[in-house]
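Write out the 3D structure for:
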Amino acid sequence: MKKGAEFAAAAMQAKWNGIKYNQLDCQGFVEEVLKDIGITKPDGSFYNWKGSNSMYRNFYQWRGTKEECINKFGCVPLGAFVYMWRKTGAELVGYYDDLGNFTHVGIYCGDNIVRDSTRSTKTGRDGVGNTTLDRFSHVSLFTGFDYFDNKKYNSSETELQKLLSEMNLKLKEWGNKINEIAGSARTT
């Protein structure tokens, strides 16, 4: 199974730079990156969603708000699909599940960077490029990826906090040892 980090790395390749939105929209960009790393449906065909609403509602192992994702996993994982969302207005393409409209999709690539394709007057960008995670409100983890190399970090924020506490204790122990050694060196 491919890693989410592999998907994020493929999205960041320079070959996507300069591709205009009218050649590759946000959904198409995500689908093309999936193709690029050889991800297909179980029947061998390529993914072809009906827009970002369809992407949020299909082929996910987990989905929710960005805050829910961070609370559950401790972060937004590399390679996660991230979405812009609005509750107001009719849901597009006939969904009546009260989830709202997912108006845009991108790929989270780490360090607050999202790779997407947009025709945005706010950013002045037309096509594939980078934006920031703070512009996105929802996350889905695609069924085709392993987002967590080490299952120890997959359980909950509580386990992550426990591991961080253990690391802090070790660092304190090492600091005390260094101070001991430094103190004995000064007295000799």
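Residues 157-187 form the longest helix (31 residues).
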